[in-house]
User: Fold this.
Amino acid sequence: RRVHGGLFSICLDDDNFRTINLLTSYKLNYKNIDIMIGITTTVWVAGVLFVATATIATATTKNTHSYRLTRYLTNPNRYIKWARPVSDESKGVTVKWNVAFNQIIEVDMKNQLLKSLVWLRESWHDDFLMWNASDYGGIDKTRLEPDLIWLPDIVLYNSIESEESGSEENKLLIPVVIDSNGDVRYNRPAVLTTTCIMDVKYFPYDKQSCILTFGSWTYMEHQVDIIPADYSGGDNGSYQKNGEWELGAIPVKRTVTSYFGTENYSAVTFMINLKRQAFYYEFNLIIPCAMITAITLLDFFLPCESGEKVTLAITVLLSLTVNLLLVADMMPPTSTSLPIIGQYFITTIGLVACSLLMTTIVLDIHYPRTPSKRVPPWVKNLFFNYLSHLVFLHREKVSAADTRSNYFEAPATPSDHVYENYVRQHSRNKGNGCADTDDAFRNSNALIAEATNEAMVSISENLDYMVGVMKRQDEEKSVLGEWRYLALIVDRLLAYIFTIATLASSLTLIIGAKNPII
Assistant:
C-alpha cells in the first residue's frame, strides 16, 4: 500500500520566531506511521504547556502586588511570629474581645456542663503588619493564615476541651484580616464546652447563669491586656431559639487577677443568662403526678367491702416513686439544694403514704375486733351529730330502743292451761250424764296431759333460745352498723383533709417556684 506524506510545520517561540518547514514525500510503512503519530502528539503537548505557562505568567503579573505584599509581611527576616508585635518593648498589646452567642447545643445538668456554638471576635494592633497601600497597587486590606503571624494566647479558662472548634486543621482554614494600618481582626466560630455551676432549687422553673472567662495564659496585664470590645455585653442578635432555654442578656466585665502576688493577668467574663421553658416538664412529669395523686382520692370513696383499698393506695405510691426516680436521674448529685419538683414529689408521696395509713384506720374501724362492743357515746355524739353534717352524711337520729329487735316476743307457755281445759270439758260432760266414764277419761287424759306438758316445755325452751339468738344477732348487726357508719364518716372526712392538703402543698410549691423570693 502506498501512502503519501504531507506538510509538517513546527513553530518555535524564540527571539527570531523562526519557522522550519519540513517537506517529506516518501513511502511509509506501518513503522513510519507510528513515528509520525508520536511526533504529532509531542508537538500538541508542547503547545498546550506553552499556552498554560503564558496564562500563569499573565495571572502572576496581575496579582504581583498581593504576592509582593504577602512576601513582605511574612518575610522571616523582618517578622517573627513568636515575638509580641510592638516596636517598643515597654508597650502592651490591647486585645479587644467579644462573643456572639449563636446556639445552645446542650445543657447537661447532671454533669453541670454547657455546650454552645459561638462566634469569637478579637482584634489588636500589630506594629509589624503595616504597609503603604500606594506601594502595592492600592491594596489596604489582606488576609493571611493565622499560623503565619503572632496571635494572642487567649484561652477559655473554664473550658473542658483543648480545641475551640474541633481540630487544628479546621481552625487554620479561617484567615486573619489585616488592615494597612496594622489592625488585625480574627473572627471564627467555635463550639465551647464549659463548666457551669447550676442551681436546681427551682427546677423546672429555674434560671441559670453560666460564665465564659477568656484571658491570656502566659502574658501578664502589662504585656497583653484583654478588654471587652463592647461594654454593653455580648452579641445575641444571631441567636437561634432553643426549645428548652431562653437566652437573656449577656453582660460582660473585665477582671484582673493576681497570681503569685506580683503577676496580674487580665480577663474578660461573659455572663450567659438562661431561663428554662417548663412546658415539657409540666406535661411529662408534673401533670402525670397530679393525675396519679387524684386517683388516690378514689381510695377514700372505694367501699371497704371491695377489699382493694390498700392495694390501690400501694399502687399509687409505687407509681409516684418511679416518677421520683426519673426526676432524680435528671438532677446533679448535689446536697446544696433540693429541686422544687423533688419537693413536690416527696410531699405527694408523703400524702399518699398518709392516705394508706388513713385507709388502714378506716378498715380497722369498719371491721372492729370486738363486734359486741358499742361505739362510745361521746364518739357517737361527735361524729353522728356534728361531723356527719360536714361531710354530708347526716341521717336521722335513732334511739336505743329502735335499734333492738322487736320481731320476736316470748310465747305463752301452754302447759299450765292444759289441765284446766280438760277439767272444764269434763264438767260439761258430767252435766250430760257421763259419770260412768269419768274414771276412764281421767286416767287417759292425765297421761296425755303429762306427755303434752313435757313436749310444750321443751318447745318453749327451744323457742326462748332461738329468740335469744336472734336478739343477739340483731344487737350485733346494730353495733356493726354503728361502727361502719362511723368508718364511712371518718373515710369521707379524711378524703376532704387529703384533698385540702394536696391542693395547698401543690399550690405553695408551684407558686413559690414561679415567684421565688430572692
